[in-house]
Structures are given as C-alpha cells and as structure tokens.
Amino acid sequence: MAEPAWRKQRLEEVLTRPDLAARVRAGFSSAPLCDHCLGRLVAEVGTGMTNDERGRIVRSVLGVAPPDEPCGLCGGLFDRIEEWIARAAAALEGLEFDTLAVTSHTDPALLTREETLWRRTGADLAEPYKQAFNRLLGTRLCQRLGCEADLKNPDVVVQADHRAGAVTVRIEPLWASGRYRKLVRGIPQCRWRRFTTSVQQVICDPVLRAAGGEEHLFHGCGREDVDVRCLAARPFVLEVARPRRRRLDWDALAVEINCSGQVEVAGLQPCRREAVARLKGLRPEKTYRALVQLGDNVDDQRLSRLATLVGPIRQQTPTRVLRRRPDLERTRRVVALEWRRTAASAVELTVRAQAGTYIKELASGDAGRTRPSVAEVLGTPATCTELDVMAIHLEDA
Which residues are marked as active site? Predict the structure, then answer.
C-alpha cells in the first residue's frame, strides 16, 4: 500500500537537512541495511508509517540502492518475519486466547552491532530492533490469528529467542470472580491436607477441568473457620494456572458447583488479575450469629451488661492460632450487639463487628487475651458453640 502523500512529503523534507542526511548516510555506509533497519534510523521522524515504508523513502531521497546481501545489522531477521510468525502460530496451536503480547530474548551480537551503529548515527531518532520486532511480530500474529494485542493483560505471551531462533509460549492464568456461601460446617476455605475437601476445591476443581489447566489458587475476602458456616455472600477470586481453554460456560459451571450441597456460588465470571488486589484491599464489617453457652444461669439484669461490649475491644492473637500467626495486640470495634436468651444458661448473639474481630474470643475472653468479653462482663465462663457469618457489609468497605 502506498504511503500517505503528506507523510511521505514530510519525511522527504526532513531528509533534506544536511545534518540528518549525513547521519543516515553514516549508517548505511558502514554496512548494508535492509529497508526495515534503514527506516528504524529515523523512526521518530516519519510517524504513522512502517519502518519498511520509511526505509524505502530514505533510499529514494538519498539515492541508495537496495543491498545485494543480507542486512549487516539484523542479519535478515526482519526479512524472515514470516518464519517467526509460523513458529509462533505452531507454538500457540491448541490454545484458546483472545489477546496476546510478544517479548524477545535479544541476540547479543545483533545488539552489539546496533549499539556500534548508533554511536555513528545517534540514537535519538532511532527505534531499538527488539521493540520493532516485538511490535511487528505481534501485529502480524494478531492479523493471522484473529486476536488482539494486549501488553498489560494478555492471555498468552509469545517469547521469541533471536539467537536460538525458537519460540515459546507463556500461558497467563485464567481469573474468575464471584461470591460464595458455605452451607456446611467441617470444611476449610482453602485446601488443607487434614480435610478431604474445601471451599476452594468445590469451586475450583470444575473450573480447572473445564479450562484444562494445571493448578488452581483461591483468594477470598477474609475467611471463616472450619466449623463456621458462611451464609453471607463472600467475594472471591480464583486463579487457574496454564489454562488451555478460556471460553467457558460460566453459568453451567455455577450449576455444577451448586449441586455439591456444600457450597453455592453466584456471579461467577471471568475477571482481571487486578481483582485480587481489590479483593485484598476490602475490609468490610461483618454480622455474625453466635450461640454462647454460659457457665451458670444468668438473669436478664446480668444479660443487660452485654450492651457494654459495643465499642472498642482489645484482642491479643488468640491462643488457638498462635502457632501460625504473630502474637500481637489489636484494637477492634464491636459496632452493634443484640442478644436473645435460648436457655437459662445460653444466649444467641447477633454481632456486627469490624473486620478482623475474633468472635469466639469475644465470647470466651481467651483467658484475658480479649477484653472486654462476654465472660468478663457476665462474670461467668462463656463458650461459643456455634457461629455463622450472616452478612458481609461491602457497601461500607
């Protein structure tokens, strides 16, 4: 296709400057240059054109004939671009993807030749060969395969090794987000060798099979204990490593997951990597339902003392998790608390609390490591016998 007349005219006018013409002549006088490498010497001048187009204009203006031998700079790398396209297409065969990016491992000898040339011509108007190669290969691959270039969040990354003449492919993870409800007690959120299954496995195993991936990871907006149900909709992001398929039937996968009877998901859909950081940045308040067994019968007057728990509390890392978490003291806030007697020595609490509040220890006091606590204000031992997450207040996070 012919170059736009005004762009060609602009480049021709610039090349009439003696200083620039001299620089370009210094380039091809040291070694024969192909159109692409010749055009790269003035890549910042003739915008909106390919390097090959620039190179042809340079030859026309300066009266330089095409070389009869391989390019003394790239060694024919750009003339063999179709071979690189074929290698990349073969490496991508069998993969589902919509976006790609290209990276390169440079040939040190070619890089040295380029740096030597730039010392003669200057590099302020030139484009590095690696940058030009990556763009050209990426553009041509997208045209051939019907996909789009995405340098920030590609589905696959084509890696070209210029010295070895080889192409490899890095498959980026598949990400999906949603919200889950854990309907049963006795399973952890993430895989744990002590348990046969987990929320992670119930949700991620079907996605892994559908995607033909190798492994999965799970990221939740907080987590509940093994013996705690999560009846609220907890946000999550799952990650599948090296998926061969990406165009999945997410609605059908949600139906399969929900048939487990253990976990339900809603809003299952693909997302970007950035969703993990957003998820981890959330610190929503949560509302819990806690059944608490008391050490003796407590009358209504004593139960009224529970109102004093609303406000700040101090919590030392619970004894039950000290083996895996640092021993620190934190201040947390109980936002609201309601109670209902279920027996003479038992009470049901509805507690809304700041993220990171240990509700079991709010009941027991954990031998004084949480103060105040239900046990402290009522003056009797207290044990949380059953706990559920009832609401996750994302609107306030």
Answer: 225
